[in-house]
Amino acid sequence: MKYWLLKSEPSDWSWDDQKAKGAEGEPWTGVRNYQARNMMREMALGDLALFYHSQSEKACVGIVEVIHEAHPDPTDDSGKWDCVTVKAVRDLLRPVTLAELKDDPRCADMPLVNRPRLSVQPVSAAEWAVIEERAAED
DNA sequence: GCCAACGTTGGC
DNA sequence: GCCAACGTTGGC
């Protein structure tokens, strides 16, 4: 099983929107970046991803699960772009902010920290554990 | 709201 | 195939 991170602007598609979809989930459409697309193609059923709010909040807020592997993005006419479908699993106990991750040397290699514009990115098991650990602190 | 970073487009 | 121009993203 692999771990990922999905970025969304809350004004566009928020964690609340995602949770409202429940078990049905929602296709992660609109990705128009080759690297991000290639990551989605590597996702497998049951992989988990952090749901990250960019812009105003800049924090990981929840966890989603891949329930459909990469398939053509219905919002794309060119046939070049894919999406996966994800469903909300649970909230993080508290949001883990970008500022904290930047401060944590164990997260220095995360694309979130050093390649801020990549909207779909891998997360190592170690990094995932750090975020879970931080979310469990108060 | 600004600006830096970076990806994409299009002319040559 | 290179590179400049341009557009977009996202942190500050």
From TrEMBL:
It comes from Palleronia caenipelagi. Residues 2-133 form the EVE domain. This is EVE domain-containing protein.
